[in-house]
Design brief:
heterodimer, A: alpha/beta, four-stranded antiparallel beta sheet, globular, B: alpha/beta, eight-stranded mixed beta sheet, 10 helices, 12 strands, binds magnesium ion
Chain lengths: 341, 330
């Protein structure tokens, strides 16, 4: 396994990012450890609202008030980004650490044609000033590289004139322009059709093998995780509940939440229009988290101990960690529920 | 089967704009001659290339934008050309859940006010409104104590559920779901999909379901229409689309579906040149099609090649058997 021979290019240690709202403190990210290795992709999956984007934004130091990083370290090649000045950090962004954001609409300025952010990105981290025509040519080349048809003409279009998928591809072109050491890709292809999705992911894989970029890929699509990630972290209510190789996550998941996720995926070989197995109940209110395991009210395997103690993230196999006292074996059909909400 | 929506020759061109050299670029043919029917109580899935005009089609039907030409009938009544007032009852029968959960919610309104807005036409009392808001929040799996929060305080998936609650508040007959679950994690996706299936069974809701995840579309749809560059290239029962696709683009799409099994490696897409611009005359898929010939410079019409199975390919019935083709190309 490459993990043992190389150091992670990005290491997130005990990250805590909390939101200080009028109603109280929301511990959106609550003690998260993640490692991204050069040339590898770490997939981050989990319930909507479990803190995936906030983790990515924290690594970029882009969390806005009332959110604040209250503890932890973000190590880029061993250097703690949280200790840098804002000016130093802004030099890392884009150049060393790129991000594809989840919101393609809101991250493009509606008042400027889309060649603007692209030209800005290609000029940003250069020592010498680049002639405008060269920057434009480079912008057009980037558009072509992410599969935008007719790039010369499209460069002059405004964000509202583009389909959701096209806007997404522009954001990807911006993020790739500097060939960053680490790329945080937050739902990079949700808005794209599957053929473009396949193209973009093969583009990312090429970039990765060429430049050794480490990718942290946040996605809901377990098919994409299976095809593109080397390791996977499953998050639930601000914590990592399982972390393992992609093989172990799909074949030997040991956390009931991971198991529930795998069952909920619609599959082409299953009957259509039938109810899908769901995970009963809802994520706990972040302002009133239960004592003990955060998944307890939705878990079919809950025990008294789970209601009293928080299970630590522990080794359950080689390179396989899970935060569960029970660690049930995975079965394809859902277990009877006894959690009680 | 009874038709709810009948679309005939629907066209939407967006005007071109001036380019660098002062020339005007050609118009974008976002929707370029669509004819299809949505039957009462069915789910028609709409899939296709990014930018192929799926959202534009949805927006045209509810008249958020005006068509260049064509007709759209709701229970036999022509909608295009109706005045704002005449359109009002239809605005309540038809609802849309948008692709973009960020742009589509008013950031200055609380969740309960966003839903209340949808309840307005139903003329409920204050008390009934509150009860209904609570019910709708529960239906979409949101905490009822969140009702006084603002959209920015929610994650992407949570916001998408607010949008769905808002659309359901109106008690629609016809729901256009534009990528309703692409921002959701799989467990909430399963809840929302189950919810839509249940609403359909209970209320006979008719759904136009736009999505990129083909496994999701197959799970939800009775029939599926495949779009490419503003045109429908294939339309058939959902099973037939997956087991016996009769258009080369549909086959390209199916091959690109990511499979949730780490033993299956992603397909090699390098042979696929991707979407082409300047499409010129003839078949829209011609530049990208492994089977194209000179004949394809003549545009193939969408024809019924098997009962209920339409394809816009000159070679629809001569294409190699899909299963054999898949085995040989990996
Ligand atoms: N500005 C804010 N104020 C209060 N709470 C916030 C704010 N921004 C985020 N949160 C909370 O932080 C938590 C984590 O949000 P985050 O966006 O990281 O979720 P996510 O895992 O990316 O979800 P999704 O898959 O839906 O994108 C959520 O519960 C959210 O309500
Ligand atoms: N207001 C507009 N002005 C100019 N062109 C537009 C406008 N709205 C859409 N288009 C163009 O129309 C075409 C179809 O867009 P549409 O949003 O319908 O695609 P889509 O099939 O929904 O794509 P996606 O899957 O990426 O959401 C695209 O080429 C788009 O750029
Ligand atoms: Mg997110
Ligand atoms: Mg769309």
């Amino acid at each position: 396994m490459p993990q043992s021979v190389t150091e992670p290019v990005l290491q997130i240690k005990n990250l805590r990012t909390h939101f200080f709202t009028d109603q109280g403190v929301v511990p959106a990210v609550d003690g998260v450890d993640l490692e991204v290795y050069p040339g590898q992709t770490l997939g981050v999956v989990g319930e909507s609202g479990c803190g995936k984007s906030v983790t990515g934004m924290s690594a970029m130091r882009l969390v806005a008030p009332p959110g604040r990083i209250v503890d932890g370290e973000i190590l880029l090649r061993g250097e703690n980004l949280l200790k840098l000045s804002e000016v130093e950090m802004s030099h890392r962004r884009g150049k060393d650490l790129g991000m594809i954001f989840q919101e393609p609409m809101t991250s493009l300025d509606p008042l400027y044609p889309i060649c603007d952010p692209l030209m800005e990105a290609v000029q940003a981290h250069r020592k010498e000033k680049m002639p405008k025509a060269d920057a434009m040519a480079e912008a057009v080349r980037l558009l072509a590289s992410v599969g935008i048809p007719d790039p010369e003409r499209r460069a002059r279009s405004y964000p509202h004139e583009m389909s959701g998928g096209m806007r997404q591809r522009i954001m990807i072109a911006v993020a790739l322009s500097c060939r960053p050491a680490v790329l945080i890709a937050d739902e990079p292809t949700t808005a794209l059709d599957v053929t473009v999705q396949a193209q973009i992911l093969s583009l990312l894989r090429d970039l990765q093998s060429e430049t050794g970029t480490g990718i942290l890929m946040i996605t809901h699509n377990l098919g994409l995780v299976a095809e593109n990630c080397h390791t996977v972290a499953v998050m639930y209510a601000g914590k990592v509940v399982e972390k393992a190789s992609v093989q172990d996550i799909f074949k030997r998941p040991r956390h009931p939440y991971t198991q529930g996720l795998l069952r909920a995926v619609p599959r082409l070989d299953h009957p259509a229009k039938q109810p899908l197995p769901t995970i009963p109940g809802m994520v706990p209110n972040p302002l009133r988290l239960p004592v003990g395991c955060r998944f307890q009210t939705r878990c079919a395997f809950v025990t008294d101990r789970c209601r009293q103690e928080q299970p630590p993230l522990e080794a359950v196999g080689t390179g396989h960690l899970a935060a569960c006292f029970v660690q049930p074996e995975y079965t394809a059909s859902a277990p009877a529920h006894k959690g009680g909400a | 089967m009874e038709a709810l929506i009948e679309i005939t020759d629907l066209v939407k061109h967006f005007p071109g704009r001036s380019t660098l050299l002062g020339k005007t670029s050609p118009p974008v043919k976002a929707v370029d001659g669509l004819t299809f029917t949505v039957y009462k109580g069915e789910t028609l899935g709409l899939v296709g290339e990014s930018g192929s005009g799926k959202s534009t089609t949805g927006r045209l039907i509810i008249r958020l934008i005006e068509p260049t030409s064509g007709s759209c009938k709701y229970e036999g009544k022509e909608l295009f050309g109706l005045s704002r007032a005449e359109m009002l009852p239809y605005r309540q029968k038809m609802q849309i859940v948008f692709q973009d959960p960020y742009g589509s919610l008013n950031p200055r309104m609380t969740v309960s006010n966003i839903i209340r807005e949808g309840l307005e036409p139903r003329k409920l009392t204050e008390q009934e409104q509150e009860t209904e808001i609570t019910r709708l929040l529960e239906v979409v799996g949101l905490r009822t104590s969140h009702r006084n929060r603002y959209p920015h305080e929610f994650s992407g998936g949570q916001r998408q559920r607010i949008g769905i609650a808002r659309a359901l508040a109106v008690n629609p007959e016809f729901l256009i779901a534009d990528e309703p679950v692409s921002a959701l994690d799989v467990s909430i996706q399963a809840q929302v999909l189950n919810l839509l299936l249940e609403l359909q069974q209970k209320l006979g809701l008719t759904i136009l379901f736009i999505a990129h995840d083909l496994a999701v579309v197959r799970h939800m749809s009775d029939r599926i229409a495949v779009m490419y560059l503003g045109k429908i290239v294939e339309l058939a029962d959902s099973e037939a689309i997956y087991l016996d696709p009769l258009h080369p683009y549909t086959r390209t799409l199916l091959r690109a579906i990511p499979i949730p099994n780490p033993d299956i490696r992603p397909p090699d897409t390098s042979a696929d040149p991707g979407a082409q611009s300047g499409r010129g005359e003839g078949c829209v898929f011609r530049n990208r099609c492994p089977h194209s010939t000179d004949k394809c410079s003549i545009e193939p019409p969408l024809l019924e090649v098997k009962p209920g199975h339409f394809s816009a390919c000159h070679y629809a019935v001569e294409l190699p058997d899909y299963h054999d083709e898949r085995l040989t190309t990996g």
